[in-house]
Design goal:
CATH topology: Porin
Order of helices and strands: HEEEEEEEEEEEEEEEEEEE
Radius of gyration: 22 Å
């Protein structure tokens, strides 16, 4: 689960409005079966901690996104293709300026007994990485296959196969990773509003530069649909085991613990909703360190009018760095990060094509590693356009 953090001033909104791109179009072809959408955003942000570490170096950042979506709905196979370009200019750290392209293609089958999705993607990413406390740049490649098949009236199975590759620009500091994931779910229809399921997942993470591989195996049980009380969504919990393969020394760490994941929503009224998220599992940092990550979050949304709405996001969690490589000093105490974040956003639709937004975020990280203990505030304002 990822949380974006931002806000703005009236001056920033004015600057954005003047600079906003004006030509946007929605095109329909083939008797309405093919659609072309264009989206654009521009924002001005003041980030008080660009590199997410104790040095607290801030900068004004000008950023934007231009994306095009092609959607085709004809016959058995649906097609979704998205091409986008993200850019940012840092007023005080010009070496961090970036232009990141991305492309994603998805093919869906939503009719017939067997349904599923096949997807492919490539993207360049520039981000502030709180696990390594600096910015990293990478090319990300992925491919995936998902399917669902109803066995009999009450039982169905679904599964997925996924491939992901991360190539980092800084090869001296970071370790490239290749991840292979396979999962299988067995669903049982309990009643009209609730399904029960059992899932098994296996993840192999291949680390470059001799760091060795990590094999994660998890077995979970869960519920989807009406989870509990007024909450709808999906929630699962189980047991996760991480085993190193082909590694020795500090990277050879076997770990096992409980795991959980899920998202639940509650419609308080026609205009207000509350959603909750939980995630607890193993992950691997850009420096090939194993981390046990736990995150819990709550989001409140209120649509005041047809044009105005706001959201409030609250979350917190802990990242425990495992093994000897996760120690703050050789033979010292383990690095453990505990964090909390709050984000408030307000959106106003000027018309059906143009929306103005302001966002403010506060992020605080407490760590047993002094360099990783820091606060971060982001104040952002901008506008988005959809055609």
């Amino acid at each position: 689960m990822k949380f974006q953090h931002r806000l703005l001033t009236a001056a920033a909104v004015t600057a954005v409005a003047v600079s906003a791109p004006r030509a946007r179009a929605l095109v329909s072809l083939e008797d309405g079966r093919d659609h072309l959408f264009v989206d654009a955003t521009f924002n001005t942000t003041y980030d008080t901690n660009v590199f997410t570490n104790a040095e607290n170096q801030g900068s004004l950042v000008y950023a934007g996104t231009l994306s095009t979506d092609f959607v085709r709905r004809a016959g058995w196979i649906g097609v979704n293709v998205t091409a986008s370009l993200d850019w940012a200019r840092f007023a005080d750290f010009r070496s961090q300026d970036y232009v990141d392209p991305s492309l994603k293609a998805e093919f869906t089958k939503q009719s017939g007994r067997t349904t599923g999705t096949m997807s492919f993607g490539v993207a360049r990413t520039d981000r502030a990485d709180v696990d390594v406390n600096t910015r990293d740049i990478s090319w990300n490649y992925n491919a995936g296959l998902n399917f669902q098949y109803p066995v009999i009236e009450r039982y169905s199975i679904s599964g997925s196969l996924a491939y992901a590759r991360v190539n980092y620009q800084d090869q001296d500091l970071f370790t490239n990773q290749t991840t292979y994931t396979g999962s299988l779910y067995l669903y049982y229809i309990l009643n009209e509003v609730r399904d029960l399921f059992v899932s098994y997942q296996s993840v192999l993470t291949d680390e470059a530069k001799g760091a060795g591989d990590e094999l994660d195996k998890s077995l979970s049980v869960g519920v989807s649909g009406k989870v509990i009380g007024p909450f709808n969504g999906s929630l699962q919990a189980g047991y996760d085991m991480r085993t190193p393969t082909g590694a020795s020394g500090p990277f050879s760490v076997s770990t096992q613990d409980w795991s959980a994941s899920g998202t639940m929503n509650w419609n308080l009224s026609r205009r207000m909703t509350v959603s909750a998220d939980i995630s607890r599992n193993f992950s691997t940092t850009a420096e090939a360190l194993s981390v046990e990550a736990t995150v819990v979050g709550v989001t409140f949304r209120d649509s005041f009018t047809a044009k105005a709405n706001m959201s409030l996001d609250l979350s917190g969690g802990q990242n425990a760095f495992l093994g000897a490589e996760g120690d703050t000093t050789p033979g010292g105490k383990q690095r453990v990060d505990t964090f909390a974040t709050a984000t408030a956003s307000y959106y106003y639709a000027v018309n059906k094509h143009l929306k103005v937004f302001v966002t403010c975020t506060y992020y605080r990280n407490w760590s047993s590693l002094a360099f990783a203990e820091f606060p971060r505030e982001e104040f952002e304002g901008g506008l988005s356009s959809h055609w």
